[in-house]
Amino acid sequence: MKIAFITGATSGIGKAIAVRLAKENYSLILTGRRAERLVELKEELESQYNVKVLILCFDVRIFEHVEKAAASLPDEWKSIDILVNNAGLAAGLDPIHSALVSDWDQMIDTNIKGLLYVTRVIAPGMLDRKSGHIINLGSIAGRANYPSGSVYCATKHAVKVLSEGMRMDFLPYGVRVTEIAPGAVDTEFSLVRFKGDKQRADLVYKGFTPLVAEDIAEAVFCAISQPAHINLQEILIMPTAQASPTLIHRENN
Fold it and tell me: What phi and psi, each to the nearest 5 degrees, are found at residue 218?
């Protein structure tokens, strides 16, 4: 069976990727911190698509938990074909001189260290089998900075550079690495960034048509469905109305 391991699968892009791969008959290892959502998604996918789903509830920011989760995989689930490092977030939108250090820690620990921790425990199996594909979710923010978002942007710059480094390190083993860098995607992203302030979050997507999670899921499937000799190293995917992190054409309503 083809197995995909997806972090941050409880909502948004991660959930959409899980649904898209279920349609292609992948067996799915879904991870996240919200156990009830994982259970609901498992039941939904198994019922609707008749696929096998294994759920692991842990925090990617804690290496011991990542190690324990990986070690708990039954033998038949250990030959992972696709790793999707999707778990990530933005916390706050404040200039460096007044930002919360806890926001910095949350972003750095999740977006950088979490990606590294999960890759560290999953990639060796791929290298042993000389087969596999790692998808890292980056951002347009990893290509260009913007005011009051420099730490988030720095974490996504790190995802880009780490993806490049993985391609170098894994080159002799035939393991592909793709970074997918979206622009504005209408998910819980802004709601999380603004700590539940829905009115402020909704303004981010006002006046234009943003991407949706399913658009990114299609990009993931596009990358992994290429012939073995092709690696789509980077996919930068933007709404038509967006030219840069801060330049968006909004229609007057």
Answer: -65, -35
Q: How many CA atoms lie within 13 A of 152 on its CB side?
A: 23
Q: Is 152 a catalytic residue?
A: yes
* Helix runs in the chain, H state only: 12-23, 35-49, 63-71, 101-107, 115-129, 150-170, 189-193, 198-204, 213-224
Catalytically annotated residue among 26, 49, 117, 152: 152
CA 88 – CA 241 distance, rounded (Å): 24
- Is residue 186 within 8 A of residue 143, CB to CB? The reply is no
Q: What is the pLDDT along the chain (253 residues), one digit of tens a residue?
A: 899 999 999 999 999 999 999 999 999 999 999 999 999 999 999 999 999 999 999 999 999 999 999 999 999 999 999 999 999 999 999 999 999 999 999 999 999 999 999 999 999 999 999 999 999 999 999 999 999 999 999 999 999 999 999 999 999 999 999 999 999 999 877 777 888 888 888 888 999 999 999 999 999 999 999 999 999 999 999 999 999 998 999 997 5
Q: Give the predicted TM-score (pTM) of the model.
A: 0.95
DSSP annotation of 96 reads T
Place of tokens 């979710």: 137
**Cross-strand bridge partners of residue 176:** 133
